[in-house]
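Let's study today's protein:

:::
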Amino acid sequence: MNATIDRFGHPGTLVAEYDHWVVLLRPSQPTLGSLVLAAKGEATAFSDLPAAAFAEMQRTISDIEAALGAAVAYDKINYLMLMMVDPHVHFHVIPRYAGERSACGIAIADAGWPKAPALGDAVDLDSGQIADLVGWLRQAWPG
């Protein structure tokens, strides 16, 4: 694992793990079910990932979209590769929807809909909420 993965709360935020990727619950939720898809290696440029990571990415994205579709019923999904503060290859996965979604006693509106995600309006989760949402998403995970 790398420092970027640690910074997003691993292992407490771990939803799913693959050979080259981890899927983490984003501790700050601009929309319900927001995730981080992070490469496990030390690459800080997308083009530096090994070919096997690119191949496996198709499965991880399919699983993400299936799980979030079942759990959140999103209208669109945004993948943001920002990598300004956290240098290792990762994407912020933001399910988008009109209105509000709720789970585990947490309700979150998509404040940016239908424009860019309102990352500054994210709901910061406490450790109990993180554990609850991780469990909820793991139940929705394929396979």
